[in-house]
Amino acid sequence: MFYRESGDFKTSYIQDQQIFPIGLDRWFVAVVCVFAVLVVPFLINDYWEKSVLVPVLVWSMAAIGLNILTGYCGQVSLGTGGFMAVGAYASYKLTTMFPELNMFLVVLLSGGVTALVGIVFGLPSLRIKGFYLAVATLASQFFLVWLFNKVPWFYNYSASGQISAPERFVFGIAVSGPNAPPWATYLFCLVFVVVFAFIAKNLTRGRIGRSWMAIRDMDIAAEIIGVPPLRTKLSAFAISSFYIGISGALFFLVYLGAVEPTEAFGIDKSFLVLFMIIIGGLGSILGSFIGAAFMFLMPVLFKNIMVGGLGWPTDLVAHLIFILIGGLIMFFLIVEPHGLAQLWRVTKEKLRLWPFPH
Amino acid sequence: MSAEVKKGDTLLEVRNISLSFGGVKALQDISFDIRKGEIRAIIGPNGAGKSSMLNVINGFYHPQDGEILFEGAVRDHMKPHQVARLGIARTFQNIALFKGMTTLDNLMTGRMIRMRTNLFWQALWKGPAEREEVEHRKRVEHIIDFLKIQSIRKTPVGRLPYGLQKRVELGRALAADSKLLLLDEPMAGMNLEEKQDMCRFVLDVNDEFGTTIALIEHDMGVVMDISDRVVVLDYGRKLADGTPGEVRDNQAVIDAYLGVSHA
Q: For site-directed labelling of A69, which of A201, B169, B205, B247 has its Cα 20 to 30 A away?
């Protein structure tokens, strides 16, 4: 079998602590990254950009963010849509107030602003746990969306109450606004997602990640070995919101272009991201990607097959998709309650021994 | 902070501790000390207040009266994670491991208080963060060797059998390199063989690492065998304090355990 770890000997702790301890995994990830950066931009067209690649990248970013909070630190949150809105409005305000500001900086700062807001809304987590915390975070969802509707300063007093992304350039190439070429917006999102996925991986396997997981698995024991609960939970809220803020900024600047808060950042978005990480796998960075791709691409795939391939009427297909997606979610959760990432892990363990059962 | 505490000196002293929950008096005027390098047992019938006593030492409960001195300095109103930083580690009566994490990660979490690289280096996993990780990994591997749990290093602890989980929990407490180790019924629910193993580990920890140990245990054979001094609690009061021999012959202790006729 090609996929194996035998012969892959570790002779130092550094080797043993790599992100991808198995040689083949390392090669696979490297090839995917190189392909995504060097090949895809030449093949990409408007359809692939707007319907597949950019939204999947943006939702992956949001899913990683929520996974840090819910999957690693065990704090359920239904405020994702609200935090994405904070990222979007922060990026809008920054880029309209300082038009010369570098776009990378705009997106990072939007993440920073969202992190601060996340800390504030994370404060109740010290006292409230589980479902009750989820309900408490609903407050942030509704309050933030209400705020962006209510206070005209946030949408620069525009008549429609909408915000729309101005045209901004990176190295002389537009990455936002209507004239941005597909490959540029794609690469812009890709850079953020790849860099921050690796950072998330590093954070979750080190001291900070272990303290999050300790709080998640047994908060009393975590406290007794010296994990300060308030600081740990708030750090999870901050970093998670940072990721979600970046995804919100990209969602607005690069993907949608024009945004109306109730529509774009409603409670359904919070649920969507939560379902992504549950389907993909709680406590897994890979799972965030798989979940985002599953929840977003399955409807697109079914639609292409049924409308494009079989020529069925659109309204029938739209309803069939709901049934099929719902059925698939149930199927996968029954097969593997710990998500698709766990399914992949189990498959890998089986592959190691293949063709022998034990 | 006081000077280095030498073997045989008092490491921890509790003075006149009283703790009550509403009308229930869990602890009443308890005083005893734990000397450096000894194995100190806390025994007593169910509901005597033994676990409450550990929770007071850990900072989970704050007593209404009395004070606690650690290394000669009075310590008041600390949170559990601050107590951990002083050098007090603990295992629980019902296993309190991080079930989703591997044995290795559980032990590495035990070294939390000794790790200090900041978020920036953690995010990059280079330079100081990597060095720190390797340095602590070495220490953790030493403990893994000591407890003979090499084969389950990368197994999520939720999958391990009970006896091994108890051992991993001891490992996690050891990983902190604490001065004082509190063990809450380390042998509860074990068979004879597992108990013997655990006794040996407790004695070896005391011997090799020089860790002071305070343990709660119901198995009198074990208590009498391995502890240097025993304190007996009953209904929140201290009944006796002394060497195992003294305690065994104490009439109040015999009455508490066997009952006394009121005829």
A: B169
pLDDT at A110 over 90: yes
Q: How far is CA B131 from CA A13, A145, B122, B176, in A?
A: 10, 44, 11, 18
Q: How close is the nearest chain A Cα to the Cα of B130, in Å?
A: 8
Q: Tell me the average pLDDT across A223-251.
A: 93
Domain presence at residue A286: no
Going through chain A in order, the beta strands assigned E by DSSP cover 163-164, 168-170, 173-176, 258-259
Q: Output the CA–CA distances (angstroms, integers) from residue A98 to A103, A109, A191, A259, A304, in the order listed.
A: 10, 12, 23, 20, 42
* pLDDT < 70 stretches in chain B: 1-5, 262-263
Q: How far apart are CA A257 and CA B233, in angstroms?
A: 71
CB neighbours of residue A257 within 10 Å: 17
The pLDDT tens digits for A135-175 are 889 988 999 999 999 898 998 888 888 888 888 888 888 88
Query: Which contiguous run of DSSP H or E holds residue B39?
Result: strand B39-43
Per cent of chain A over pLDDT 70 is 97
CATH number at residue A42: 1.10.3470
Q: Test A218 with B84 for CB contact under 8 angstroms.
A: no
A210 interfacial to chain B (CB closer than 8 Å):
yes
Determine the pLDDT at residue A161: 82
Q: State chain A's mean pLDDT as an integer.
A: 88
Q: How many domains does chain A have?
A: 1
Query: Which pLDDT belongs to residue B5?
Result: 67
Interhelix angle for A207-217 vs B103-110, to 10°?
100
Give the Cα separation of A321 and A355 in Å (integer). 37
pLDDT for residue B2: 44
User: Which of A198, A207, A345 would you mutate first to test chain B, the one with the most B CBs within 10 A?
Assistant: A207
In this complex, the residue of A202, A217, A221 whose CB is nearest that of residue B122 is A202
Residue A30 lies in a domain: yes
Q: Compare all CA atoms of chain B with the CA of A18 and give the residue at the minimum distance.
A: B125
The tokens of A270 are what?
A: 């919070």
Q: Do A210 and B125 touch (CB under 8 A)?
A: no
Between CA A329 and CA B146 the distance in angstroms is 46
B117 near B129, Cβ under 8 Å? Answer: yes
Distance CA B55, CA A224 (A): 10
Which contacts of A95-100 are long-range, i.e. CB under 8 A and separated by 24 or more positions?
A95/A165, A95/A166, A95/A168, A95/A176, A95/A253, A96/A156, A96/A166, A99/A166, A99/A168
| CATH code, residues B1-87+178-263 | 3.40.50.300
Nearest to A13 among B58, B105, B137 (CB): B137
What's residue A44's pLDDT?
84
Q: Spell out the residues 6+ positions from residue B258 whose beta carbon is closer than 8 angstroms to its own.
A: none
Structure tokens belonging to residue A30: 């490297």
Instruction: Say if A142 falls within a structural domain.
Output: yes
Cβ contact, residue pair B122, A208, below 8 Å: yes
Helix (H) or strand (E) run with residue B130 in it: helix B128-147
Q: Is the pTM of this model over 0.80?
A: yes
Separation of alpha carbons A253 and A230, rounded Å: 34
Contact flag B97-A218 (C-beta cutoff 8 Å): yes
Partner residue facing A13 (CB), from B81, B100, B134: B134
Q: Which of residues 15-74 of A touch B (CB under 8 A)?
A: 17
